[in-house]
Amino acid sequence: MNKAAGISDEAVRKATGKDWKEWFTLLDKAGAREIDHEGIVAVLGEKGAGPWWQQMVTVAYERERGLREKYQKAGGFSAGASKTIGAPLAKVYRAFQARVKKEPGVEIRRATPEKSMRLTWKDGTSVSVYFGAKGEAKCQIAIEHEKLEGQKGVAQRKKYWRDFLASL
To answer: Do 50 and 97 fall into the same domain?
Structure first.
């Protein structure tokens, strides 16, 4: 194995002292195929991986061993979309908020003006939206829609949010 999770063996070895194959072999020997995510993280912590690498190696291992699918998280699947828009942050934030308020069954749980929004979607799933300025006349929006069911839900929400952002 030369790469997992988009990170090379060399980078993993430099940061952790082991490459992907060594970590995965260690986890196989520890019985990681039979334990949950938190258990795998704990094994990696005991073996000296730092907190960020514990999560990274665990997710890569779960994907490599067929224990986790792409876009799958502990609470379901997650779809993301982002876009850089050629307009001031305040204007884009207000436009986004106005559109969301028109969506039937969508609740804005928490909002920090021009920074973030947390939504409960009409089907009970969760949406996190992050806003960031990229100068005076440009900004970026990043959306993560969580607790989705399967790859079909991911594909549907990715398309929905891409279309939504394109229409702002």
So the answer is: no
Burial 37-65 (b: 16+ CB within 10 A, else e): beebbebbeebebeeebbebbbbbbbebe
8 A C-beta contact, residue 106 and residue 121: yes
154 and 81 both lie in a single domain? yes
Residues 6 or more apart whose CB falls under 8 angstroms from that of 6 comprise none
Total number of domains in the chain: 2
For residues 16 and 88, membership in a common domain is answered with no
pTM (2 decimals)?
Answer: 0.71
pLDDT tens by residue, 121-149: 999 999 999 999 999 999 999 999 999 98
Residues 6 or more apart from 46 whose CB is under 8 A from it?
Answer: none
Give the pair of three-digit tokens for residue 128.
Answer: 């996190």
